[in-house]
Amino acid sequence: DNNEPIDDQDPEEPDDSDEDVETVALGDEITTDEVIYTVTKLGSTPCVEYSELFDDEVTKEVIPDTITVDGVTYLVTSVAPKALYKNTSIKQVTIGKNVTEIGSKAFYGCSSLSKMIIKSDKLKSGSIGSNAFAKVAKNVKVYVSGTKYSTYKKILKKAGIGSKAKIYKKK
Questions:
Q1: Which has the closest alpha carbon to 132: 64, 36, 140, 55?
Q2: Cβ 22 vs Cβ 30: under 8 Å
Q3: Collapsing DSSP states into helix, strand and coil, what is residue 158?
Q4: pTM of the predicted protein model
Q5: Exposed, middle or buried: residue 98 (CB in 10 Å: 0-12, 13-18, 19+)?
Q6: Distance (Å, rounded) from C-alpha 89 to C-alpha 85?
Q7: Which of 50, 48, 157, 62 is nearest to 116 (CA)?
Q8: What is the pLDDT along the chain (171 residues), one digit of tens a residue?
Q9: Burial of 70 (C-beta count, 10 Å sphere; 0-12/13-18/19+)
Q10: Are strands 72-79 and 92-95 parallel, antiparallel or unpaired?
């Protein structure tokens, strides 16, 4: 008979409470079910760029205000160049309120894109890349903040939105 006390704790077992925590670096990609985001800023207000919609079946897409991954909330502050390039399935896009930049050709050739809601009031002249909205549906309806209506009308035209596009003040 062995009368030694039974020790359930294996002294070799490491404390794994911090083992699985991955550190995120600038430029890292975060992939969700439909979208790839790229980390653009770390620190107290981490930010990501909406980089690519890889689900070709999606017809309505929301570029969110924020995403939360592993308990960290990231502001979505930009849309990458060619993020939805030549995506012919997409019919409606909502651009979140934290977006300050839209890359060139981000929505280029989205020929079915007939409705856009731009929640952000942070876009400025020069913050939308060339041809970002070229070759979207001819009669696209774009809803923008009333306070940004005249500014956005100009910068959307400069970004390639067609002359038949209708730009409305959203309520």
A1: 140
A2: no
A3: helix
A4: 0.86
A5: buried
A6: 11
A7: 62
A8: 556 655 555 545 444 444 444 688 999 999 999 999 999 999 999 999 999 999 989 999 999 999 999 999 999 999 999 999 999 999 999 999 999 999 999 999 999 999 999 999 999 999 999 999 999 999 999 999 999 999 999 999 999 999 999 999 987
A9: exposed
A10: unpaired
